[in-house]
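ARCHIVE CARD
Drawer: 12
Card no.: 0347
Subject: one protein chain, sequence and derived structure
Cross-reference: see card 0346
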Amino acid sequence: MGRTIVELFYDVISPYSWLAFEALCRYRHIWNIDLRFRPAFLGGIMQQTGNKPPAMLPKRGEYMWKDIKRMAKYYQVPLRMPADAFQHIMGTSSLTAMRFITAIDMTSPQYLEPLSREFWMQFWSQHEDIKQPENLLAVARQAGLSAELSQKALEMISSATVKDRLKETTAEAMKYGAFGMPAVVAHYDGEPHLFFGSDRLELLGSFIGEKWLGPVPSPKL
């Protein structure tokens, strides 16, 4: 039996997407899956589906900040909540960052994983800005990209090609039923199956006939 294609639609402004990203990275050599990263724009999905950020509801937001801390510890991901968490996320648009990531995905996909991880590190661990050009270049440098490659990606973010690719990927996520992120789509038995959230990975494993071994599984020998 061939490997199950598992697509992860994500946006670096989503902390839960980071948790799912790291967990799936750990499982891609344990489960019989073909993991594919699909950078998309969460803001576009929220607008198109009429969804609202959880933090917009005070009680839900209060719970979410506590939940993220617990989940980060459970998944062993260095996610640290800033004191002004609500303003940190609500005052930031990830559109430029996601276009930059998309540009790298189109030109040098081998850097997609480390670049995405570094954006999460900068925004959710270091609490740095991810909108300004100089910050995008700094993130790329930390992820191991050359200055030439980073500059090329920066120039591409205003191109129709990159904008259209990001729109298409976002639309594809919604076609599968996504209303938020992370959106994990498993192509199993000839059909796509959506799993929403970083806490549905155990269910994903069960669905595709794989065993959940915890958030930090031991690699196969």
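Annotation on reverse: The first strand starts at residue 4 and ends at 10. The chain has a mean pLDDT of 94.
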